[in-house]
Amino acid sequence: CYRENILKTAKALVEDTKLLVSGAASSQDKLAQAAQSSANTITQLAEVVKLGAASLGSDDPETQVVLINAIKDVAKALSDLIGATKGAASKPADDPSMYQLKGAAKVMVTNVTSLLKTVKAVEDEATRGTRALEATIEYIKQELTVFQSSEVPEKTSSPEESIRMTKGITMATAKAVAAGNSCRQEDVIATANLSRKAVADMLTACKQASYHPDVNEEVRERALRFGTECTLGYLELLEHVLLV
């Protein structure tokens, strides 16, 4: 029942996405209608996904987290898409903002597809871990793209904060190695959830620290490079766990 409702609402959201993209080239009224419609649809989708997560029971909290993370990714992608649509409104077809809009729409569709795959995998215990890991790998790749963008973080943090966040990577690495050895679905799901948070926190702290007022250009470039290399190395580790 929940799966059918999620599927139906997700399809409606994809249609809203198409309207948002086409709305950038039409009137402000149409754009506003598309934005409002997508906001209503994402609210409905979040509700049915939360009901689906609750139906799993409290004895499987890690899988509940996987489902909630999937809908959070879709909501974030929709927010970015609406922002990109506003930026591209009334601009010519070759304007850079139009390319950003297409990129945001692609991420949106990718995340909706990922959500549907996750919902399907939840019904099959044998594939839950694999799917959770695949979703985390996709999420980390998207976070890395944001990290590598020229966008300056809204706030800065101390280098000490960045160092503190690397401890999460160490813990997640140990968990990933253990999951690769045990091959138990619950261990793999827990690894996926922990890895997602650890890498996202590290990337955020690294970028914020690299833009600290006391950091010069050379040190910033090195910090950003090492943040990227750390993430790529961790992605490789997760790919190996997935292979195992």
Keywords:
0% strand; A middle domain of Talin 1; 8 helices; 2 domains; mainly alpha; 244 residues
Task: Summarize this entry quickly.
With 244 residues, the protein is mainly alpha-helical. It has helices at 2-23, 28-54, 61-88, 96-122, 128-148, 159-182, 185-210, 217-243. The longest helix is centred in the N-terminal third of the chain and has 28 residues, at 61-88.
CATH topology group of the largest domain = A middle domain of Talin 1
SS strand fraction: under 5%
Q: Assign the structural class, choosing from mainly alpha, mainly beta, alpha/beta, alpha+beta, or little secondary structure.
A: mainly alpha
> In the CATH hierarchy, what is the architecture of the largest domain at level 2?
Up-down Bundle
Helix tally equals 8
Radius of gyration: 19 Å
End-to-end C-alpha gap? 33 Å
Q: Write the H/E string, N to C.
A: HHHHHHHH
User: How would you sum up the global shape?
Assistant: flat
What is the CATH superfamily classification of the largest domain?
A: Talin, central domain
As for the number of domains, it is 2
Q: Sheet bearing the most strands, described?
A: none
User: Given this structure, which CATH class of the largest domain is correct?
Assistant: Mainly Alpha
Q: Poorly predicted ranges (pLDDT <50, ≥5 residues)?
A: none
SSE topology:
Elements: H1 2-23, H2 28-54, H3 61-88, H4 96-122, H5 128-148, H6 159-182, H7 185-210, H8 217-243
Helix pairs in contact: 1-2, 1-3, 1-4, 2-3, 3-4, 3-5, 3-7, 4-5, 5-7, 5-8, 6-7, 6-8, 7-8
